[in-house]
Amino acid sequence: MQYGFHFDGARCTGCKTCMLACKDYHGLPSSLAFRQVYEYGGGSWTRHDDGTVSHDTFAYHLSGACNHCANPVCVRVCPTGAMHKDDRGLVSVNAARCIGCGYCALSCPYRAPKVDREAGHSVKCDGCAGRLDEGREPVCVEACPLRVLSFGPIDELREQFGKAADLAPLPPSDVTAPSLALTLPAFAREHPDRVAAEGHVLNGNEIV
């Protein structure tokens, strides 16, 4: 069974409670974070001949962590087998085998693994595996005041929320097949690399 996250982009306000709860629960230093909250925006404005101004600007928030991909490149490039998937499909690090080479951090398109130089090995989101063993949710899911995040078997989440997994600034999902389901925000945009590859026109940060 493969577990994963659902993110509701229509509800997220970018408050970063999920990010801070994760840092607090895992005791992470200020230089490390397993979950990041991004603000993505763009568009432009136009001044008309009559002196009025119109605009097509947009902005939305995105909370992202490890997506426990079906085809995780971090696992493929790990030279020691320290990066691995468990029976729930969660990607985690065996600290005893990790040599801190950083290949996982360099290869992951989501920048999920981090190398903790003080500890001497890579660290990352493991879906709060210990909490799952106790029948609890990941701490980021529990902490979110607007219930933006959900976690569980990805097939069930996709059946409930849909199969969308592409949203700028995330990289195209066909690279690693992330275990992610998205409820898209208003004015959702795809990653510019995908749009360019499909022949759309880019105008600054706006997708035309």
Write a structural description.
The chain is an alpha+beta fold and 208 residues long. The chain has one domain: Alpha-Beta Plaits. The protein contains 7 helices and 13 strands. The chain has helices at residues 17-26, 73-77, 103-107, 129-133, 139-143, 154-161, 192-197, and strands spanning 3-8, 36-42, 45-47, 53-55, 58-64, 83-85, 91-93, 114-116, 121-123, 149-153, 180-183, 202-203, 206-207. The strands form 6 sheets. The protein has a 3-stranded mixed beta sheet. A hairpin with a 4-residue loop joins strand 8 (114-116) and strand 9 (121-123). The radius of gyration is 19 Å and the shape is globular. The termini are far apart. The model is unreliable at 195-208 (pLDDT under 50).
Q: Report mean pLDDT, rounded to a whole number.
A: 91
What is the spatial order of strands in the main beta sheet? Answer: 10-1-11
Strand content: 15-25%
Architecture per CATH nomenclature, i.e. the level-2 architecture? 2-Layer Sandwich
DSSP strand count: 13
Q: TL;DR?
A:
21% of the residues lie in helices and 25% in strands.
Please supply descriptive tags for the structure shown above.
alpha+beta, Alpha-Beta Plaits, 3-stranded mixed beta sheet, two-stranded antiparallel sheet, 7 helices, 13 strands, 21% helix, disordered C terminus
